[in-house]
Amino acid sequence: MSQPLQLVVFSDDWGRHPSSCQHLIRLLSAQHSVLWVNTIGTRRPTLSFDDLGKAVVKLGQWLKPSSGSGQLSAKVRVITPPMYPGFRSRWQRWINTRLISQRVNQELDANIDRGKRVAIATLPIAADLVDQINVDYWVYYCVDDFSTWPGLDGSVMKQLDQKLAGQVDRVICVSQVLQGRMAQFGYESQVLTHGVDPTYWQGRQSTNLPAWWSGLEGPVLLFWGLVDRRLDTVICKALAEQCGTLVLVGPRQSPDPRLVAHRRICMPGPVGYETLPALAQAADILVMPYADLPVTRSIQPLKFKEYLATGKPVIARRLPATVPWADAADLVDNAGQCVQLIKDRIGHGTPFGQQQARRRLGGESWMSKAEQFEKIILDSVYP
Hints:
globular, Rossmann fold, alpha/beta, 13 strands, single chain
């Protein structure tokens, strides 16, 4: 049995969407106690309907007493400290550092558990907290290059990213591209790619589908995830105009207006994680039509391995994260290739060779990834 730890996690809101950190921590909470700290987003808020809705939800969280979720282990506590909605200026970060550190340290002092305290951060905005939180060890779990994300202040994100990497005891990256970025900063890191639970995505019947699904004109091409400017507008329009109905499931974050207005592109918004396997089985093709951009070259999309696990035909942009699985899916470089492959795959299913290549997903389980993540930390904390 491993040494127990107290994990203090600074990340996205627990339960809002199943991020890689949530997958890992949910499994590690069986052995280690967890204090999960919901943070505000890294993008500057606007007066859009979506952003105003998020603000209302966040305000409600601040006004409620902190409590754990009924879906979590008894060892997990979730808190949402009040924060100023911005990190661009030094005075904004100064305010947030004090608000967050005071709330977190109070929670730690009130709950004395065995084991060393290890802070895990997935967001560069935690850079100013390293010297303020009462923990023994810091880990930067680097999941994205936020300096290249649309809608973010790239120079500030790069500054915070480099600062955080230089202050922590260990950096764990989800891709070799991000590991290379850390090396450019002058810091060593280890790579731990995302996992998947194949059985969750297999054999789910397409029953109890959302009402909007019945009105779609087939064939149906399905994408799920954040709908934003990382999507390739040319490819998306070509799919909608030449192949079928393109369904983009997930929260919208300033997507190209040409996609929003297109009559053959459906954007129903987010759905529950439990609904995605049924949608996948009801769709004809699963697509990942990202543009080839600095931000997409560094991502390690959770959805890609989830797509593969469904058994459905998968067509995705050729990117560093997808190339290792080129034998398990169809990878494309442009709209023409994408359209032709979709026409070839509709009605014929996933080729036998790709089905065989996907068998190695069995070695990519989240349990395996959680064990590797835990070992990296324990080997450092208890050498």
